[in-house]
Amino acid sequence: MSNPVFDYHALAPLIVLSATIVVVLVADFFLPERDRRLASRLASLGVLATLVPVLTLAVDGADRSILGGSFVIDNYALAFAGFFLVVAYVTILLSVDYIGEGDYFQGEFYFLLLSSTLGMVAMGSARDLISIFVALELISIPTFVLAGWRKHDPRSNEAAIKYYLIGVLSSAVMLYGMSLVFGLSGSVYLADIARYAAVANPPPLFRVAVFLTLVGFAFKVSAVPFHFWAPDTYEGAPTPVTAFLSVASKAGGFVAILNVVYFGFFRAEESWQPVLWALAAASMTIGNLTALRQTNIVRMLAYSSVAQGGFILVPVAVATDAARASFEAVVVYLLVYGVMNLGAFAVVIAVARRTGSGEIQSYAGLGQTAPWLGIVMSAFLLSLAGLPPLAGWFAKFVMFRAVIEAGTPAAVTLGVIAAVNSVIAFFYYIGVARRIWFDAPEEPVEAPGEAEAAPEAAGGSVRVAERVTTPVPAALTVAIALCAAAVVAVGVYPQLFARIGELAAPF
Amino acid sequence: MDWFDSWGLTLAVFLPVVGMVALIAIPRAEEQLIKATALLATLLTLAVGVALLFRFDYDATGSLQFEVDKRWIDVIQSRYHMGIDGISLPLLVLSMFITVLCVIYSWDHFPEPHNPKAFLALVLLLEAGMNGTFVAQDLILFFIFFEVVLLPMFFVIGVWGGPNRVYASIKFFLFTLFGSALMLLSFLALYFKLDTFQIDELARLGGEGLVLSTQNLIFAGLFLGFAIKVPMFPFHTWLPDAHTEAPTVGSVLLAAILLKLGTYGFVRIALPALPQAAQSWAPWIGLLAVIGIIYGALCCLAQRDLKRLVAFSSVAHMGFVMLGIATLTDFGINAAVFGMVAHGLITGMLFFLAGSVQERFNTREIDRLGGLLVQAPKLAWTLGFCAMASLGLPGLAGFWGEFPVMLSAYEPGGNLSELTFRIYMVVAAVGTVLAAGYLLWMFQRVAFGAVREEWESSHIHDIHAPEWVAWAPLLALIVFLGVYPNALFRVTDGASVQIADGIARVVGG
What is the tally of structural domains in chain A? Predict the structure, then answer.
């Protein structure tokens, strides 16, 4: 590369996003109270503006590497930068009305959201342990605050405290692991660590180091047995933040795992493969079995996302025998998972606005009272379950493809566990869909004024009309429509995401 | 009309989807418009089917026609590959045809909770999945369409079904899902061993380069996937529940088309792709088939519920189809495809009748019925006619689905044991006698005798106009195929011969 130190084009996404963060924060000081909603506009414009340099870099196509190889722009980094920005944009759409209507600080909310996004965008490019750690903390710390955004709700406080304590603990463990890795390999650069792992027949201590590092990441992606914070935090946090945590923050953790595993530890497979194998198997099984018992939709989705995290880990756990296929599988799975999970949470927000409840019980008869919400919610849930022709099937498909291509006994065993779990997962996803369509709507609990007890024979249309009180706000509608369109489009023409996965694979 | 040769199948699959989208756009209150749109969509689809019938080259029924082969998912080398041969064509047209009749029949018969919009939208989606399965020539495409069918049927049973609908719908869903998961694993295994998802390519390879043990294992996955869908004994337990609880139209579509997806899968994929495994599995498939024939018939004799009886008779009839397939001969496969079409027409008709009887009497319990001939003679005679067709009376379509199957079992293909299959033949023949027994007994109890006291004062309407419109074509076809079976055999023969030859080429004999 001819220009020596700084390639501003490579850094442009980070620069634009940082500038947006500053503008959002400063503008908040000067905006009159009634114009506070401007903050969300600024934030979403900034996110979209950040996509521009990502796209120009993608069109340019050249791999860029600066800061001595710590910061790399390649297809993989760009794919995830784009993904995180789109997720951030959708999260803003989810938040606009939720945050705007509550008595919340708007400027700060978007400031924190974008800061976390900045960490994510940096994560894809990070190729040394320090950058990875900094990016990961940049992702996490703002979300500690966001989780406690509903200050007057004790559950939100509990969510924030739990998340914060466990997050800090995991950072410490991870940092300890990283320091051991550095001590053994003599470098923080992943490229050097890869060389060390390939040549030097690492000592047993290296396994400990890798184990501790991965445990730190396992907390971030809420893999079993490091998932205990997730359901409480997800339930207590404002729902848009939950959506962001379960999709973007989690994907950030997975990108970190991809970085260290594929670019660092890859050749020392005996040190990381068993760990990830166990994490994947436990996450799928425990996540699904616990999800079966949930009565609250957010908690169910929390455990479902633990289980989905297990599915995402499956290809990584068989990576050495199917390097390329497994990498592609993880990328595709993450993209698909992001779309469908965001969509599901968007509908949860919309339904909570109508019924004021997060209980699965309150979804009874949604298909009659709000057919559109019923349809899209069913679509997202069945996509999560992996039913064609919705996007989820292809994610599962590429995962199984990686497993079968690896073909080792360990891989096949994991594949069988994954297959059994896919079937278990159907029970709770279809359970919600069943409530939506098969059950009659619940009578409103607080029957105000004339409780006319409309006779069933009247078709129930009167009653239905009464229940439609709060329309779904425009921003939320756009978010749901975007996700739904993507779920169907990718399901019917998976090449859309498959191509991204193919381009991103660095082998 | 060149464009039709390359776009015909795409139209056949996606016109119903277009219709579904149009339905969704129409407000729920506009019921007449909704029904008209659904009818138009199915009629247009049928028109495509008729055009396919006219443009089909009947001298080359063994080769793929109207072929489309476009890039789809490059990463896994899966292609948008469709085409029909002499086996797909009749089933595809049957599917289009039955869907039109179902829309007509349901015109004034929407089961509770009514909502024609959602119901018809699901029926259209179902049609897209069924048509797609019959035309797909790529395993992944096949798998997608195979699964698309699942969800609409789940909702049709679960929302519009009888009292026990939730249990029935979930049982249906999970059984089929379990089967298709194993089927997908086998597809993946085929891909990794033979490096292709193209069905015609797999048939050309004929399992080349696969050791028998691998073939047998892959076949096992395919077998479970398809056998659950057929359903073969002992995987049939979802069927009586699903049929009994489903609304009439759901039962008709389930019996007439959905069950054929399984048998079609055997003929289209399992046999040609893995001939050696097919040969080693064939005696067992034949055994399960004849057990199904006898078991289904015995269950029918014990049923008190009209719909459940027809459902169990499906198990028996599909046993004949599977026996024909298990002989691995062109004769047997021809008979099996004929059996599929005949069963689709006749059992579809029987479910329509069962639905209409239930609607008039609010019960399907055979013991409470009686004297239908007095109260609604036309309905009763139609029931009698269909019972005769179902028991395989010569001159009606059912005969040509059963008699040639038994004939083909006399001399099975490949290196299959003649003795075994001749025993199967005898058992199957006993099955036809039992079929005559349960169907005639059913007819006698429902139609003959005096009107029961509880119905004496009630006015039982004979066949309505929409019922006539929906049923007349079916009845006519049952007679037509019965007296001129060659109309169908001529279409299927070339393709059946090709499949049987492909097997014989690999396994000898």
Answer: 1
